[in-house]
Design goal:
Radius of gyration: 18 Å
Strand content: 15-25%
Number of domains: 1
Shape: globular
Helix content: 40-55%
Number of strands: 7
Mean pLDDT: 90
CATH superfamily: Spore Coat Polysaccharide Biosynthesis Protein SpsA, Chain A
Largest sheet: 7 strands, mixed
């Protein structure tokens, strides 16, 4: 086969959507999540990044998903590195035209990815965020609601972008756009960093409504108040410093 023929075959066989799934100690939720992701009626690649899990999640991934399913690839870390670090390591390996972030639980409904993908094709948007607040007021702890409101307000004030949900997990990108952002994040500051750098580069972000079912710390939610402080600082920092 000629080189040009191989390249054309690779392009043709590339999946439509890459779903990046950083997980840390999600033994209970991962099987349900994976069933939902695998059942999506689209061409996809699922990239699981196991962030040094210690509750049996690693063993579950090895026994049920790693090298068992053609749609699934796995990256392992021996110790916990943080969500942002995991995503930075996974992004260069994405082959699909579009990429979306999926947490390792069921707070978000993977069926919403179908509408996000439809909007990409319909609008030719470079980036789409699934907003939990655009047409709804989901139940969540008051402190989480406040920090979400504050972060969205900061984006509107600092970056002049009409955003309702900066901290949403469902951030979806044309892959070439995502790969062009020079990320430095390690933990949950992925969200404000990628948002700030997109807007500084004048990349428009479309929002569409999505479903959301919040879980508590007791149910495994890992974000803490210190991550909120870091998100605030990240939005301020990248409004001021030079972007590569």
């Amino acid at each position: 086969m000629k080189s040009s023929d191989r390249q054309e075959a690779e392009i043709t066989s590339s999946p439509e959507l890459a779903i990046l799934v950083p997980v840390y100690n999600e033994m209970e939720h991962l099987p349900v999540l994976m069933d939902s992701l695998l059942s999506l009626p689209i061409s996809k690649e699922i990239i699981i990044i196991d962030d040094g899990s210690t509750d049996g999640t690693t063993q579950l991934i090895r026994s049920e998903f790693d090298e068992k399913l053609p749609d699934v690839r796995v990256i392992y870390f021996a110790r916990n590195m943080g969500k942002g670090y995991c995503l930075r390591q996974a992004i260069p390996s994405v082959r699909a035209k579009y990429a979306i972030i999926q947490d390792g639980d069921m707070e978000y409904d993977p069926q919403d990815m179908l509408e996000i993908l439809r909007k990409f094709k319909q609008s030719n948007a470079p980036v789409i965020y699934g907003s939990r607040f655009l047409n709804a007021s989901p139940r969540m702890h008051w402190a989480n609601r406040f920090i979400n409101w504050l972060l969205a307000w900061m984006v509107r004030f600092l970056y002049r972008s009409p955003m309702t949900d900066e901290a949403t997990c469902y951030k979806a990108f044309r892959t070439e756009i995502l790969k062009s952002i020079p990320l430095k994040c390690h933990r949950f500051e992925f969200c404000p960093e990628v948002t700030a750098k997109l807007l500084r580069k004048r990349v428009p972000i479309m929002e569409i409504p999505i479903h959301y079912h919040a879980r508590s710390v007791a149910q495994g939610k890992k974000i803490r108040w210190t991550d909120g402080v870091m998100a605030i600082w990240t939005l301020i920092k990248y409004r001021i410093v030079r972007i590569e």
